[in-house]
Specification:
233 residues, hydrolase, dipeptidase activity, globular, Peptidase, protease, 10 strands
């Protein structure tokens, strides 16, 4: 059964558009059926796939496998090179896409890539006009306003000296992924204990997704998925 936990207003704030659609998760697998429900016609639609965080993480190859999952689901997947691409071409590639998927990995390295490539305003503008943003693990973390809180889970390999490095600012919720997980579960518990009195921190197990649509937000527990669940009929 699909379990839902409605959240309060901690995710609201100035400059956050009522048209935004965010799917923020520990595991990208759980986001596939949710995005399909929001975009019934997925075949041939363009999905911007940002793998940068995965290259600074020892488990990154697992995150990059989501590229094949989205292809199975019908998307025309465009891998966006934030590091080696020309800034104008990168922005044009992003602008041409119907949805954005940001891989898991190291949150600090990811945010540096996003910032240095100049795509932060582009992503914010796209989300503001209703383009879905799907973030897996680090991709979910950087959707918030600041990402320093994730330090117990991710080594700051890219933004040393930044005590409160900025995120994308798509939501005021701070996602803490991998709650109760065999990998990174202890770090998730530590973060949540440190911020136990702040309702803006949302812990997610690997089977949960924070769904933000406009001014509403909920945590959804998804069923265990098999490859047939990714594919179009």
């Amino acid at each position: 059964m699909d379990e839902r936990q409605e959240l309060g207003t901690a995710g609201h704030g100035p400059g956050l558009s009522g048209r935004r659609t965010l799917l923020l998760a520990s595991s990208g697998l759980q986001t596939v059926p949710l995005l399909r429900a929001m975009m019934p016609t997925m075949r041939g639609r363009a999905l911007a796939f940002l793998p940068q965080a995965s290259y600074a993480d020892r488990y990154g190859v697992v995150s990059r496998l989501m590229r094949q999952c989205w292809q199975l689901a019908g998307f025309d997947v465009h891998v966006i090179d934030l590091v080696g691409g020309h800034a104008h071409r990168v922005r044009d590639e992003l602008e041409a896409c119907d949805a954005i998927y940001v891989c898991g990995g190291n949150s600090f390295y990811l945010m540096r890539c996003l910032r240095d490539s100049g795509v932060v305003p582009t992503i914010r503008a796209m989300v503001g006009r209703g383009v879905p943003y799907v973030g897996e693990s680090a991709g979910a973390v950087v959707a918030c306003r600041t990402i320093g809180y994730i330090a117990p889970m991710d080594e700051n390999v890219a933004l040393p000296g930044h005590v409160h490095p900025r995120g994308l600012g798509l939501t005021a919720y701070r996602v803490v992924p991998h709650v109760s997980g065999a990998v990174l579960g202890d770090a998730a518990r530590t973060i949540l204990e440190w911020h136990a009195d702040d309702p803006g921190f949302v812990g997610l197990r690997n089977d949960q997704v924070l769904v933000v649509r406009g001014a509403s937000a909920r945590v959804t527990t998804a069923p265990v998925l098999t490859p047939t669940a990714w594919q179009l009929p």
